Amino acid sequence: MDFYVTSSFFYDLNSTHLYAGYQLGRSKMKNVLSKFNRLCSAELFNERHLVPCNYLDYLKEIYGQNDWKNPRDNYGEWSSVVNRGEKWTEDEYPNVFNT
């Protein structure tokens, strides 16, 4: 069975929401989610992970009230929580992944 796990760094957006930023082409994207109060430990395939204690609320917020219950081949982006931001300029873009 193939499955994917997404690991994200979350940053404060405001007093009620967090965001995980990422890039899609030249676009600056933000996955915006409600803040969580606590993290709990969960086991998945013999590995321990920290997840929001109210994980069902997050599944519903990201994938929809009942959509999260049925696997899909490709969820793509979190369409319900994505804020499409600005784009990198022509001058900025070559330095985005400068190492």
Radius of gyration: 16 Å
On the 0 to 100 scale, the average pLDDT is 79
Total number of strands: 6
Unreliable spans are: none
Q: Order of strands in the sheet with the most strands?
A: 1-2-3-6
Give the class from helix and strand content and strand pairing: mainly beta
Terminal CA distance reads: 35 Å
**Beta-sheet strand percentage?**
35-45%
- Element order, helices and strands? EEEEEHE
Number of helical segments?
1
The major sheet is characterized as:
4 strands, antiparallel
Percent range of helical residues: under 10%
Shape: globular
Write structural notes for this entry.
Helix content is 9%, strand content 36%. It contains one helix and six strands; from the N terminus they run E-E-E-E-E-H-E. Strands 1-2-3-6 form a four-stranded antiparallel sheet, with helices on one face. It has a two-stranded antiparallel sheet with strand order 4-5. The longest helix is centred in the middle third of the chain and has 9 residues, at 55-63. The protein is globular, with a radius of gyration of 16 Å.
Q: What structural keywords apply?
A:
99 residues, 1 helix
Fold blueprint:
Layout: E1 11-12, E2 17-24, E3 27-34, E4 39-44, E5 47-52, H1 55-63, E6 82-87
Antiparallel strand pairs: 1-2, 2-3, 3-6, 4-5
